[in-house]
Amino acid sequence: MQMMCVPIQRTHSYPLYIHHPNLAPKIPFLLLKSHRFIPSSVSASHMGFPTNGAEADKPLKFLLYGKTGWIGGLLGDLCRAQGIHFSYGSGRLENRASLEADIAEAKPTHVLNAAGVTGRPNVDWCESHKVETIRANVVGTLTLADVCRQKGLLLVNFATGCIFEYDKDHPLGSGIGFKEEDTPNFTGSFYSKTKAMVEDLLRNYDNVCTLRVRMPITSDLSNPRNFITKITRYEKVVDIPNSMTILDELLPISLEMAKRNLTGVWNFTNPGVVSHNEVLQMYKDYIDPNFSWKNFTLEEQAKVIVAPRSNNELDTTKLKNEFPELLSIKESLVKYVFKPNQKVNA
Known about the structure:
- InterPro entries: dTDP_dehydrorham_reduct, NAD(P)-bd_dom_sf, RmlD-like-bd.
- The chain has 346 residues and is of the alpha/beta class.
- The chain contains twelve helices and eight strands.
- It has helices spanning 44-47, 70-82, 96-106, 124-127, 130-151, 190-202, 227-233, 247-259, 276-286, 298-302, 317-322, 329-338, and strands at 16-17, 30-31, 61-65, 85-88, 110-113, 154-160, 208-213, 264-267.
- The strands form two sheets. The chain has a six-stranded parallel beta sheet, sandwiched between helices. A two-stranded antiparallel ribbon has the order 1-2.
- The relative contact order is 0.15.
């Protein structure tokens, strides 16, 4: 496969895009150079937990959870492409002894968790499997965080931003997004309820970096977990602006956040919002000129789903300050998703 490199802004000394054969076709993942750790004493509140990986001369070794999942698989691909040593954990998250065994064997500098229950085919599954959802999303995640804390390891936890809903203080279309310190206000689905619970508890762990992902998208339009793939296959869609996460751009940033030992809660979406109709119009313009879709209201949607869905805008000021080159959601959609897949002549 031909290698393609495009220069980008060198705001943090990581200079290239690279097309890698281990990654999905035509996905120009942003690859970040290995970052030497800044001692936590430089800025304890910013750098967070002084992990085992904080030694500048110690090589990176990531322990990943979520091997069979979508994001977990992509993280492994990125580690291979960047030359980062990694392994997947085999232990069950709720089984403390198995996690301790994984860590003893892997001897990681950081742990990244993309495991958990989202439900198949969607979060409605969680409504009828509440114990299984608690076991994975609450007990499992907390156990992993606690083991990592005991072992002096930073945990990057891929969470969700679907714990908020537009309200009077954050009206739809206002541009006022929910901040990292805001209290979740959406408990319409059991999935979101468990995620809000565990996020609140994880705030007590100074070794955890919580990344709020929303409506994840990649340029692999054949993947059924891809938000774009989902809505192009729906008979009808609602049309509401939302914050979304372009994984092609943001997953490499998550690795850089681990290297910097960043902790705390982060809204992990691209800046701004985009509506369902705007995404589908881009799909029509770039991919399939014959594509069409139908809308329906939230009231009509409620008749065909079990649990309500979250709609919100997240404030990304904190993430944008750390990574100034981060593109807005619409710019990122064009650059990372629709341009690489373009089939319609401009």
